[in-house]
Amino acid sequence: MRVNAQLETRLVQRWLPWPKRFDVALLSFFAMIIALCDRVNISVAAPSIMQEYAWDTVQMGWALSGFFIGYSFFMIPMGILVDKYSPKGLLAWSVAWWSLFTALTPLPKSILSMTFVRILMGAAESGVIPSMNGILVRWFPRHEYSRAAAFSWSGGFAGAIIAFPLASAVMGLWGWRAIFIAFALLGAVWLPIWILSTDDDPAASRGVSNAELDYILDGAPQMDTVKTVPWGKILNLSALWGVLSLHFSSNWLSYILMSWLPTYLIRERHFSLTNMAIGSSLPFLSAFLGSNLFGFVIDRLSVGRDRTLVRKLFLLPYAITPVTLFLLPFASTPSTIVLLLCLSMFLMSAVHPVFASGSLEIAPRYAGTVVAIQNSLANGAGVLVPVVTGYVVKLAGWSAAFWLTGLIIVAGILMYLWFGQARRLVD
Description:
The protein has 427 residues and is an all-alpha fold.
């Protein structure tokens, strides 16, 4: 793929000091921040909502699960659209619509109506991961897949870091309903920047030098428009089910903290609102730092080595995570509780680059569709966690909820050890 002389002259015009492909990763990162802010803000509002409407943990669990029902159900159609059309356009559409439904969240007053609004919001947000992987595979060479995907996806952790204290501050000033209006404005700020500064094709984008374009295209997969998806080949990939299982187990831990950590810290551990905001954010800061660190190390170690073996080595720190969760009920001080939560999320982040780049590795041409299948089923954890945790806590307490999470992590590790691969399996 080459460009004409006029376009080559235009492409080198750039005032930022880093390569253009970093813009794409950075804006994808911010999209994930906004997505997670809008996803978890209801967790901060949950104690106040439960008090105002006299809902118990089971009832609130259904409202929390609504988002993930829409998110999981529409993920695969979104992935197909990404591969057939435009990841840039679909991500823009997604951000616009989920921001609207975020603003509408405080209006319902019944469990059924609030759950319905959250389902619609989840459906809109289902485009973020397929769009992100669909554009990253076009903009980054293979040896940067892990760090590019890890950084972009780690915006989810950064979003949780920002969301808990910001939502707590907004709620303290103006009440829980104001959280959703304030957070909806974040998407309105991001949207025009994305539209004006990003393209699906790096060769058609301003600011890409000839050297960077050659660097991106060197060894890049064929990215012609996808007319038909080879569903049989994709669904028969054992590697897909290995990475999906690993992703599901990681999501279970992330979502139990995103959905229930504020409630756990306030109701069970008697944290103040300020301490809850800090205690809820620090574990995600640990995950954010760990994800980018491990992503960089994985890419470096993969040069000249078996990429699958390198990724399986990073299951080792993840395997320690259940130990931290089993110890959590025995922690007696706030600092120890937060330390164990931070350690569990840091160790979990070792596998974040592994499953974030999975679709780029095994089926780059169909990265949007494959990651949609992966993320749709892995986010079944998001549907199950709020409700299952609500029931488990009601019947057996918080300790049982964390022990269950540890067992699910062990199952995910075993599945990836058996089936996981990091090589192109579908052309």
